[in-house]
Design goal:
four-stranded parallel beta sheet, alpha/beta, six-stranded parallel beta sheet, single chain
Length: 373
């Protein structure tokens, strides 16, 4: 969302209302985007939201829309996530008498790993139904999210699918020696928060079954499952070949991807999977799970391999093929590098821009017709 907002701000006035951690300014401008941050409860980190922070964002966001945005004029409100942002966006749309476009981004519709996800919690699910029906237009980040929204919430209106995008990462090239990697090793890289949904224990178990002892697994990211995953690697006797980097800056992550041989992440579910596109930009073959939003652009046998999330034997077989066949890795990586260029932030922003223009044109025509009548 941030990347799309920055891209749109090159041609339009863009304001973002969001929640804020304790150390962030209430109002500031970043990359041409005017940002307003509503205070929320029990949020101490920028990158992690708590349930209380999401619940308190609703009333706090409504108050901020009235106080901080009240003197401004808007043509359209775009709410990202049905919860917790959808109701705030609906209130703002009514406040300014403009259309609301609701973007469904994944966990607001479906998450198999959390008890309080709308698809598992009847109360929140009923709430999401109301948010969907209140929006003037709905967008999903993938066909998977669109289909789940219609099936899970009995939503029969059309949903526009606009894929996410990521610009080609730029970083100073470095050798493996700088990263502390074995120059002759085969490196499988995975990127994501260390949480249940990312299903990273399956990767560790698969590595323990590979016959090639020169294969390493690099897990980039941090989260609550860090210690349990380290313990699993230790129990499997492969802790020397499983490397946990924790959080790393974008530049270092890019350097790691460009020095790797394979990217693998068999999550329980991904709404779109931007990390796959980042890996494709680095020229890596991709092993991913299915179903998920990544099926919109990943193809079995061309971009890599798609597997059920818990298929450890299938994952071992896929990894073995790529580990033992550098020509296959190179072929898939070259294909991915070319395909990744179609999923840029600029492409995503243009799709939103066209949709917004279409909605505003239709609204103007309807208002003119009503006036004439």
């Amino acid at each position: 969302m941030r990347s799309v907002a920055v891209e749109l701000a090159k041609r339009h006035d863009v304001h973002v209302l969001t929640s804020g951690a304790h150390d962030q300014k209430r109002e500031e401008t970043e990359d041409g985007v005017q940002i307003f941050r509503a205070p929320v409860l029990l949020r101490s980190q920028r990158s992690v939201a708590s349930v209380p922070s999401m619940l308190s964002f609703w009333p706090s966001g409504v108050r901020s829309a009235r106080s901080s945005l009240g003197d401004l004029d808007f043509d359209l409100i775009n709410s990202w996530f049905a919860v917790p942002s959808g109701p705030i966006g609906r209130h703002a749309a009514r406040q300014f008498d403009v259309p609301q476009v609701l973007t469904l981004a994944g966990g607001d519709i479906y998450d198999p790993s959390k008890w309080y996800a709308p698809n598992r919690n009847p109360v929140l699910g009923h709430f999401v139904k109301g948010v969907l029906r209140a929006a003037d237009r709905t967008v999903a980040v993938s066909s998977d999210v669109s289909n789940r929204a219609q099936l899970l919430y009995d939503y029969n209106e059309p949903i526009d699918v606009i894929p996410l995008g990521v610009d080609e990462p730029v970083a100073t090239p470095v050798g493996r020696d700088v990263l502390g990697w074995d120059k002759n090793g085969i490196y499988i890289v995975s990127v994501g928060r260390l949480v249940k949904r990312k299903n990273l224990h399956v990767l560790i178990q698969a590595l323990s079954k590979l016959s090639n002892q020169n294969v390493h697994l690099v897990i980039i990211g941090d989260g609550p499952q860090h210690h349990s995953l380290e313990d699993l690697a230790r129990r499997k006797g492969i802790d020397a070949r499983v490397h946990f980097t924790g959080f790393v800056p974008d530049t270092i992550r890019t350097q790691m991807l460009t020095n790797a041989n394979v990217f693998a992440l068999t999550s329980l579910h991904e709404a779109f999977g931007l990390v796959y596109v980042e890996a494709m930009h680095a020229g890596l073959p991709v092993i991913a799970s299915q179903p998920g939003g990544q099926e919109d652009y990943l193809t079995q046998g061309k971009t890599g391999y798609l597997l059920p999330p818990e298929d450890i034997d299938g994952l071992v077989a896929a990894l073995s093929r790529l580990v033992e066949n550098p020509q296959l890795r190179a072929k898939m990586g070259a294909y991915n590098q070319k395909l990744a260029k179609s999923y840029s932030v600029a492409h995503t922003a243009v799709r939103y821009e066209r949709l917004f223009e279409e909605i505003l044109t239709q609204n103007a025509a309807q208002k003119a017709e009503t006036f004439i009548t």
